[in-house]
Amino acid sequence: MLDESVLRGKVRDAIRLRKFPSRRPDRTANGPGIGAACTVCGGRVTREQIGYVLEFAYGAHGRERYDVHINCFTAWELERAKVAGSAEPPPLSL
After folding, report:
1. Over 50: is that where the pLDDT of 87 sits?
2. I want to staple 7 with a disulfide (CB 3.0 to 4.6 A). Which of 23, 32, 57, 75 is the partner?
């Protein structure tokens, strides 16, 4: 697992490149991983790890889902809060 500063840098890049939203998810769930790739670090969220599933709704039928490690989720929360507090947040990915 990468250290927090590296994870936060990856999150900043993902938000800046519009690959990861900077707003609160519409739904979250956590528990043992399902083997999906983590959106932040790219590693697998295995059954031995706690992971989060973040779901974002766009319009009537559009949904995006992101699987992340618990440490990656924490890094995203910290960076998302910084973006929300900035004067010019980046546009959301659609």
Report:
1. no
2. 75
